[in-house]
């Protein structure tokens, strides 16, 4: 799949923006704060319904505007598609495909992208929530129907937490909460599916991440991924995932649903005391390791950066293997500045086979020449015309001549 055209309206620092893309590598160059990342962020939002920089949609709407619109023309197997989303300051967001109304959560069915940015170091070094968010976004891209399952789980979790807080306030005992069993059943149904799909995804990524890490680093440091599940007695959100914080270990030979129910029963008293659901996929984590040691806390900055990059490349490889949309659009936002010349060259080689790669950089010289054939310069929220871009490139070449 490739993006052939992007139109933005009232998005970030763009009142209006129109950009034409080419197959292969597309490089956007501009000083920091000019708006180049906003372009690729918009495409990332179209496929994940989220920004890699902020948690709230409100920050994406231009100051003084009521709504922002992202509209992209896509092409796959000779078929053209127009996908768009309207992000509203008040009220629900709206989405369309070929001018027909759809639910926003259905957009990943039509467009797939994988974005890597410096902020993604937080996936490796940050809290469990960052890793859960990454895997859930990838799950939705890989299996779009799971967006509905995750939405159902979040609503159930919210209702269950509300009931637990009420029980804590009123002093009810565990055996007096018959209504809680109804929410338990729903939580187990939706949560078990999410857990199983995450575990399958982790296993599916095991070989691709080893391949991707070796392609970037040029060495095998044994990168690995291991699920850390609260239903098995380890709560990643309590005291650094210590077993004592989570309670009794549930036998692992049971089904996911049975382990979930057993874990809920074991932690019922603690849940009522805290007014909080302490078991489920919202309390899980994924352990990242290099050379059999946790990346978080042991790996150097360079190793952590390489692991995060390999994780994104592995995700892109998995999607291109399994998705009916073909290659995802690969987005590298300000990545090359963090790499030495050797790793820049290796990364350029690793992404060269993808149908389309979008790259942003503050300095043109940071990006290998092989990825700079189609270069667009951005200045103060303005896409410079081709003539101005050619003049800038010519001036730089003459200065280095």
Automatic annotation (TrEMBL):
Gene Ontology biological-process annotations: DNA replication; DNA synthesis involved in DNA repair; double-strand break repair; SOS response
Cell location: Cytoplasm
One cellular-component annotation, GO: cytoplasm
Domain RecF/RecN/SMC N-terminal: 3-361
Residues making up the signal peptide according to the UniProt record: none
UniProt GO MF annotations: ATP binding; single-stranded DNA binding
Key words of the record: ATP-binding, Cytoplasm, DNA damage, DNA repair, DNA replication, DNA-binding, Nucleotide-binding, SOS response
Residues the record lists as binding ATP: 30-37
The UniProt record lists the keyword Transferase: no
Protein name from the UniProt record: DNA replication and repair protein RecF
Similarity remark: Belongs to the RecF family.
Domain of life: Bacteria
Function: The RecF protein is involved in DNA metabolism; it is required for DNA replication and normal SOS inducibility. RecF binds preferentially to single-stranded, linear DNA. It also seems to bind ATP.
UniProt cross-references to Gene3D superfamilies, sorted A to Z: P-loop containing nucleotide triphosphate hydrolases (3.40.50.300), RecF/RecN/SMC, N-terminal domain (1.20.1050.90)
Primary location recorded for the protein, binned into one broad class: cytoplasm
InterPro entries xrefs: DNA-binding_RecF, DNA-binding_RecF_CS, P-loop_NTPase, RecF/RecN/SMC_N, RecF_2
